Amino acid sequence: MRGVDSAGGTPTARTGSAPPLLSIVIPVYNLDAYISSCLDTITGQDFADIEIIAVDGCSTDNTRDLLEKRQLDDARLTLIPADKRGPGHARNLGADQAQGSYLWFVDGDDEVAPGALSAIAARLRSERPDVLVIDHDDLDAGRLTRGQDHAVIARDAGVCGPLAHRPWLLDIRLVSWNKVIRREFYVGSGARFLDEWPHEDVPVSCRVLLRAERISVLRDVCYHFRKERPGSATKSGDPRRHLTVFAAWQQVLAEARKDALGGAPGLPVHVYHALFERAVWHCSSILDARPESSAPYIAADDRKEFFDRLADLYATFRLPGYRRPGGFRGAKFAIIAARSYPAYTALEPLNRRRNELLRRARSRRHRTGRGQVAARS
Q1: Distance from C-alpha of 343 to C-alpha of 79, rounded to nearest angstrom
Q2: How many structural domains does the chain have?
Q3: Over the stretch 81-109, which tens digit does the pLDDT of each residue have?
Q4: Mutual angle of helices 244-261 and 269-288, in 10-degree steps
Q5: d(C-alpha 289, C-alpha 297), whole Å
Q6: Per-residue pLDDT tens for 235-274?
Q7: Domain for residue 35, yes or no?
Q8: Of 99, 114, 137, 263, which one has the greatest count of Cβ atoms within 10 A?
Q9: End-of-domain residue from the set 226, 255, 270
Q10: Model pTM greater than 0.85?
Q11: Are residues 137 and 60 part of one domain?
Q12: Residue at a domain's end among 226, 253, 285
């Protein structure tokens, strides 16, 4: 293990047997075009009180060779060979091996923003949160643009507390890389990633947010999410792969409904309503998705089935007292509740126009000074 000298610069040998502050777990599979740059953005930072656990799911390209060579040069890196069972299985293996006080699940095709590790470490040490939520930018064809979580994160008032005080945090991306999680809390929560993917991280993202007593929000951009990568889990594979989202949400909502109806102190009914709304919106967004450089997420032959399963989810998990939101979202929810696929289809041109306007708005708000961690107070 290595640490940082008192000047905060050159990595030095760590003394003693104390575990690192942060364990960075990276699932990898055939990422030889990206894994080196991902690791460079981590190991090149001043803060070095970390361990890096790369879990390789039987890569058939040069990924394994690259990781083995990096391991020889940096004692903080551990390589774990694994079966090809997906990123969820790999993250579970990495988390089981981690020794750090906190876990951060980073994807091997993404990058960590300059200065992010120091900013994260400072917040972890000052507040000791169960979960630290971080902001991100999107990385597309070498260009950084505002990430979709920014508007949600900007609402935060800077108070470290439970989700009940700010249920709108459920509107952040339901991925693992925008949360740094206290390892002891993570283990105690029983959180585990699903083997089937994509959407394998929905149960973990929801469980840690719902159960955390101390959630802190860091407005700094700490992560660069690579969009539109060919071969990514959301854009390639089994054409019916996105139907796995229903199994993920059924697990989350069934558990949360039981807690809410049972009066669990950490899950008041208003938080369950927010979670339910997030589930419906997430599934409908998948049905609506029209990526610019790839086919729609849901094939034409599967769209009616997907809609019917979404309507089933709505009917099954809606609790008495839930009131639909207003505006476009509320109109979409009313159509889902009525199980009217023709009406939903008629709404699609308006939805595409709305999404295009949102993309343009995010582009106009593009942050200057690409890649730097800058507090957004």
Answers
A1: 51
A2: 2
A3: 999 999 999 999 999 999 999 999 999 99
A4: 170
A5: 6
A6: 556 779 999 999 999 999 999 999 999 987 779 999 999 9
A7: yes
A8: 137
A9: 226
A10: yes
A11: yes
A12: 226
- From the CA atom positions of the chain, what is the Rg in Å? 21
**Can you give the residue range of the structural domain that contains 198?**
2-226
Alpha carbon 267 to its chain's center: 21
pLDDT at 107: 98
Q: Which residue bears the tokens 């509320």?
A: 330
Q: Estimate the crossing angle of helix 244-261 against helix 202-211, to 10 degrees.
A: 20
| Contacts for 112 with CB less than 8 Å, ≥ 6 apart | 38, 41, 42, 45, 106, 222, 223, 224
Q: Give yes or no: residues 49 and 130 share one domain.
A: yes
- 151 token code pair: 């508007």
Determine the Cα angle at 136 with ends 134 and 141, to 5°.
160
**Residue at 376 is within a domain:** no
Whether residue 372 is contained in a domain is answered as no
Are residue 269 and residue 177 in the same domain, yes or no? no
CATH number for the domain harbouring residue 165: 3.90.550.10
**Is residue 235 in some structural domain?**
no
List 26's β-bridge partners, or say none: 54
Tokens 């060979």 locate to 81
Return the SS3 of 299: coil
CA 254 to chain centre: 21
**Is it the case that residue 229 has pLDDT exceeding 90?**
no
State pLDDT tens for residues 286-320.
Answer: 998 876 656 789 999 999 999 999 999 999 999 99
- Residue pair 79/51 in contact (Cβ under 8 Å)? The answer is no
Q: How confident is the model at residue 2 (pLDDT cuts 50, 70, 90)?
A: very low
> Is the distance from CB of 26 to CB of 103 less than 8 angstroms?
no
10/78 same-domain check: yes
Whether residue 92 is found in the same domain as residue 182: yes
Report pLDDT for 349.
76
